[in-house]
Amino acid sequence: MQREKLPTIKEIAKRLKVSTSTVSRALHNHPSIGYTTTMRVHKIAQEIGYEPNKTAILFKQRKTFTIGVLLPNLSEDFFSAAISGIEDFAATKNYNVLLGQSLDDPEREKRILETMKTHRVDGMIVSISKNTDNYEHFEQLKKYHIPIVFFDRIPEKEAINYVACNLESGMLQALNLLIEQGHTRIGLITGPEQLIASAQRREIYIKGLQEKNIQLDEKLIVSSGLSKEENHKATKKLLSAKKRPTAIITFNDYVALDAIAEAKKLGLTINKDVCFVSFANLPIWEYMDSRPIASIEQFPYKQGEKATEILFSVLEGDDSMDEETETPENQVIFDSEMRLHF
Amino acid sequence: MQREKLPTIKEIAKRLKVSTSTVSRALHNHPSIGYTTTMRVHKIAQEIGYEPNKTAILFKQRKTFTIGVLLPNLSEDFFSAAISGIEDFAATKNYNVLLGQSLDDPEREKRILETMKTHRVDGMIVSISKNTDNYEHFEQLKKYHIPIVFFDRIPEKEAINYVACNLESGMLQALNLLIEQGHTRIGLITGPEQLIASAQRREIYIKGLQEKNIQLDEKLIVSSGLSKEENHKATKKLLSAKKRPTAIITFNDYVALDAIAEAKKLGLTINKDVCFVSFANLPIWEYMDSRPIASIEQFPYKQGEKATEILFSVLEGDDSMDEETETPENQVIFDSEMRLHF
DNA sequence: TTGTACGCGTTATCAT
DNA sequence: ATGATAACGCGTACAA
Q1: Which helix (H) or strand (E) holds A142?
Q2: Model's pTM, two decimal places?
Q3: What residue ranges define each of the domains in chain A, with the CATH number in brackets?
């Protein structure tokens, strides 16, 4: 079971007939150790291929120099971009990234959190699963002094650190664009009712229309469970109405893909009979002819990076008052931006 | 610097006025400990929220229950699928996944390997960077008894564990399909010369044509540095020749995207004037009208999963003879398969 | 059935 | 300038 022994400072000490403390200090170039001794230690260390045993150090220091990242999945472009941001930032601090995908399964999420906890990660960055409705397991971590920074999919709680993206700015830009282009019947495909993100989109949509004095038509708002079938259904519902919308804002890019496919199937020409605006920004859009006229960019890389930055500021801050680390600076909201595709 | 102290078995021992060993055994439900004692220990442990300190255990056991994963990037769909396979399998063994992206930068690759080593991961799964030409840093790990399983992008060495995908089966299927459909002038866009993958594709291409008695035209083989510009250039070179090919096999999906865009720009109709076959299989193809007629599927998820399985078989195997763990079973090659898109 | 003592590799503290 | 020793938290061989 036990793995082979690797060279330790003891070994070096024995060979040089000095004490382990001398070796330890020499290796850290402590000024109190004589030049020659220091040199000899380094030389032997080199020769026998000594590497400090981090597990021992971590154990002693009660730190792991590892941050846990828990997110729904890596297949979505959004999250793989986010983790790049996280990893890049963590690398600058010589931290490692322990990865877990919840796959939007609350049970899996809980299990992963559990292993992260027992592995004593120094902190966590979390984007919660779609179906999570209780946050007890996150509270748990607080007891163990493991700070969490949530990003993008954040729980509805007060005292948390988070990074998110404000959809309003981008969505209003998009609405204005559509209205300027003469669209008056603008549809909205939101996600499942229980998702905050769905409610948000709906509210901003309504607000935006009001600002421009456009009469709200409840029939132009439909929701989808986000499966392919439901996306198709939602689109069909919108587009086969008597007074069909000439533009549709979709919950995200994956919905947009299905919606565009469905619109084509219904014989409509994209960007002529009907055009789309979508949240997030698949890098692949530029290769597609039938694409939304605009995306609402939510900066996944930037979000990941910022979340990590916040996590480190908490980690490096006073541990003494770690009950209340959630200051305004630890709650960051980026503004989304509309990006034109044509 | 030091983090707050968490409950330990000492604490429990003190409260119950028993020895730490009793507590330790009770927590493991050791049969030698009396029922009441065991119960009392569990109760207190529960109350004060005791969690075994894994870092201490790992330190003692010289194991970390963590595998390191080093791959070029997570933006490519191929790798994010692969890591899902890895993570899923690792989870079944209660192992964690430490992640590192080389971004195809050999220096970064080296650094990541270094941190993985000092963090004493139990094993590694690696897909090497595009530009790596020396494998010393991998040899290093062997000294520290950290087994490596390579996948997909594997070094040209004998004694290694690996999982890869044999392109031949899929590519021959694709060639045959094209030939059956009447294509005789079939172009090939390979990658940079120094990549093994490029040579492979070239060889199989030539072999496939020979088998069907089709005269090889060297002009139909071009290589690209895989940047967007080079992809466009390579495509242009093929398609603007006097006797242009009616079908093109591209190095991968990203090349295909650029090639298709370029073909359109040249006024050609995809799948009529010219059609494409590509390696890998972007899930998004189905949403695109202008897509390759077929993909050569390389099963990233399966590769990741299998690589992890092999890693565990090595980890669980005899440590005694760890010089030569590379047995035939540890060198797995999947057959690629052609998948039609229409 | 329970307790004592030791070791894992390192560093910090207190001597010398 | 260097050495001896304790401590981090846990598991376990050996004693009682």
Answers
A1: helix A136-143
A2: 0.88
A3: 9-52 (no CATH), 64-165+300-334 (3.40.50.2300), 166-297 (3.40.50.2300)
